Amino acid sequence: AQEKKIFTVQGPYPIIRRLLRARGWVERRLPSVGRQLEQHWDEGGMGTPCPTLAPSLPQSYLVRDRLPNFIWTNYLDTTDRQLLQQDHVVNHYARVDAFTTKEGLCLSLQNLPWIEQADPNTFFPRCYRLGTRDDREAFIEDFRLTAARSLLKLALEAGDRQGTKQLPNSAKEAGESHVSHPMHSTAWPGSPLHPELVEEALEVCQQHLGVLKHQDIDRNTPSPCRTCIDWDRFLQDYYRVAHEGAGLLLTREQQKQCQNLLQCLAKQLPQLGMEGKLNVWILKPGAESQGRGKAGGSGEHTAALHLGGVPPPLCSPGIVCTTRLEEVLQPARLQVGRWVVQKYVERLLTIFGTKFDIRQWFVVTDWKPLTVWFYQDCYLRFCSRPFSLCHLERARHLCNVSVQKWYKTSPDQDPRVPPDKIWSSKQFQEHLAQLGQADAWHQVLVPGMKAAILNALRCTQEQVGSRKGSFELFGADFLIGEDCQPWLLEINSCPTMSPSSAVTRRLCANVQRDTLRLVLDRRDNPTCSTGAFELIYKE
Q1: 127: helix, coil or strand?
Q2: I want to staple 452 with a disulfide (CB 3.0 to 4.6 A). Which of 57, 123, 167, 493 is the partner?
Q3: Which Pfam families match (predicted)?
């Protein structure tokens, strides 16, 4: 056995075990405590645990006799890495949390323009770390500006409903019309609001447009939010219009101004289209991935809209959607210092009226030079209930399998949504063809996902611990906008390989098989087959 190649697998990876044994490799089993944990993970059905929940390999195990030639584990600590020799193949790099945690990815992509000629706003929804004062202030300004833009969109809709001929010519005429109706009382939540509100939104957005046209990298230009507007009152009025059914009064001139200004802003703001008009933001624990909050997290009950009732074990106890600034800025979140808040993609592509996301695998086989392989097969994950921005419960808005497995498909769900809530990328391409978007997959979606992944890796390249002989399989999650533009949500360092459907049973087996081809066979034969892996970048 000393002459044979030895491998160790930690975690629920029966496919890896079987494939390596078929190659004639010999497995060194984990100590009993490791086997018990591994059995616990398998029985728990949670898929691969996150590194924060996974123990390191026991040191006594690594120094005993001879180190395995190949190690596939959920986590390696610094001590483990120091024991490894050059020829040991291991499935992890150090310090990948620079892009595999929400906080790390948020910070890294903020620095992207300094490293690459790329704008993260074209592929990553705006994101801020609440525990950092500069980020928190930037978020407050962003929230206010988004509310102002959203009000312009709502004003345009109101004008379209009233009809141009019915719009008053001036604010004075609108005010007289407002007074002439006895029901138009400020005590009535649905009463129309004066044109002065639209005028304030126009003023703020016009100032912001001026800043965008003349911005410099030092950002010394005065903020459009530091105007004489009473922002607390403005936001309360906006909430009434966006969420409580209040109407908007505007003039014909204001309608034209709204239209022209939004067209100009669209040229400067890549996310104007996807951000919608309800100003929805999503709060996430910044140090976690795979849709999980910290085990034993705060789970605080607030006035914000929690995504569903009692959270399942280890599944997103802290993730919250909200439309109110004061709910984001609760002191408890600011004290923790590990929360991020991100713009929710309101105008997303749905399938049969249901939200979905895409899990896309890729492998890094080297960081110096950076070498990235993109898997040419992926899968879609559906929610259990129809998409709605009026109802923000978990079953409608979190696509993670570890979340959705706790919910039955609702009666109002379209019957064409698959019962196991999984589609292959081939099924998605067929659906796009039926929508008349047959070219979108190869011309928009795939190039967009590749570019987003490469940008995330390039801006963290100097932070990750590079090691020859290591590799790592990652799972990137994307939402798709109405225009088929992919939006990167997060990157997971331990993507689950526990199949939840017939589609994932096949794909997870294939990606593990092809990963071994890539990191083992290709070392001896550079021209061997790498299965569905495509080399997309090598410095």
Answers
A1: strand
A2: 123
A3: TTL
